[in-house]
Amino acid sequence: KMAGDSSFPDVDTDGSEKSEEMEIVVNVGGVRQVFYEDNLNQYPETRLAELVNCLSGGYDSIFSLCDDYNPGKREFYFDRDPDAFKCIIDVYYFGEIHMKKGICPICFKNEMEFWKVDLKFLDDCCKAHLSEKKEELEEIARRVQLILDDLGIDASESRWKRCQKCIWKFLEKPESSYPARVIAVLSFLFILISSVVMCVGTIPDLQVVDAEGNRMEHPTLDSIETACIGWFTVEYVLRLISSPNKLHFALSFMNIVDVLAILPFYVSLTLTHLGAKLMELSNVQQAVQALRIMRIARIFKLARHSSGLQTLTYALKRSFKELGLLLMYLAVGIFVFSALGYTMEQSHPETLFKSIPQSFWWAIITMTTVGYGDIYPKTTLGKLNAAISFLCGVIAIALPIHPIINNFVRYYNKQRVLETAAKHELELMELNSAEGKATGSKSELEDLSREGKEGPFYSSRIKVSHSDTFIHLLSEEKHYRTRLQSCK
């Protein structure tokens, strides 16, 4: 009777309510809410506003909007998240929506899409959480895609392409195999040896004197340096040849550091053998010494093999605001206390404060609590000014330190969570395929990598996984969650 009957005892033939103002009773996950027609019609494109006019369309129209309907109570039932619904209905009363703490931003976005409420009504503070979550999901999707690409072997590719991929994995991904880990360790050791040789070569007792009386590095150290540069050169050339995007590879910061670590050796070698014919010998030696100083850039190559250094770099990038505040505090303090110190010390006949710009150096080493003692106040007021300056310096330095440390810890923990989430997605895919929902975990991963992100096969296979992290980013279809589904 319910499925075939399209008439309602409380609805006129023209679909209008007998009472002047129609009430809409909505039950969402066991939470009952009563709405009035005037409030809902403020936003006629929303799902709740459509309930006002759906009664005249019969049960087909009703069940296209809700999960169940009680004609006796005229109550609409929805199997959705009641906590999210309580936040979403604020748009009808306040014109904006605030997301409660503890609700997953992506799930809340899906709830807003289900209730057909535009995201523009979401407050800016909540949009920031949503954007951050989207970035995390995109990063997880990117990591999973990279893993799938590594596992897949496309038979249609040429032998050279497959060789390029093998070399790239061998040099760029130490976790891919045991030989790749050995190469990463060797590269790390070559960087350390090269840095140690550069430092040891400056010890006078280990240097030798050439025929012209100039001191130069010991030939043994020079040979070790040449071997290290040879390793760096071969490594860079192989990585460049196997790179899938050579322009992006060449412009990457770490690869620019690699070039700066290698280039001075060859330029110095060229100037030593050919430069003497083009310019004076003294100019050649000065140019060679200047280039040799650039060898310190190779210490930054350690960041390629150290996740801690990479995390520190990204944390500092995210702490530009705090670092800017620190520099501003110090700059204001240096200017003020150097000017006061210069003014107060002018009465002393043996003053060391000759000018305000010269006093900047004293203010810097005082506020940073270094205190070399080469410049110091001699008057009572000058000493008092110095005491206040280093106290203010300690406070100015300490204030932004805590946010910077928090950024480091937050980014480090975030990277660990993203790495775990990516592995979890792959485990879910393998688990579901092992249960018979796919043709096999290994073949599935290979097919996924062959089809690519935009292929229909990829979308159909990714839906096998029931995880809530990145599936909706990789699939073209939208998957709405119900309140019975958990959120990780």
Automatic annotation (TrEMBL):
Q: Give one GO molecular function term.
A: voltage-gated potassium channel activity
> Matching Gene3D superfamilies, A to Z?
1.10.287.70, Potassium Channel Kv1.1, Chain A, Voltage-gated potassium channels. Chain C
All copies of the Potassium channel tetramerisation-type BTB domain together span: 24-125
The answer to whether UniProt assigns keyword Translocase to this entry is no
What is the membrane topology listed in the Swiss-Prot or TrEMBL record? Multi-pass membrane protein
Q: What is its main location?
A: membrane
Q: Which residues form the signal peptide?
A: none
Q: Indicate the segments forming the Ion transport domain, all copies.
A: 181-415
Name the CDD domains on file.
BTB_POZ_Kv5_KCNF1 (cd18381)
Tell me if DNA repair is a UniProt keyword of this record.
no
Gene Ontology CC terms:
voltage-gated potassium channel complex
Kindly provide the name given to this protein in its UniProt entry: Voltage-gated potassium channel regulatory subunit KCNF1
Organism name: Orthonyx spaldingii
Q: Which gene encodes it?
A: Kcnf1
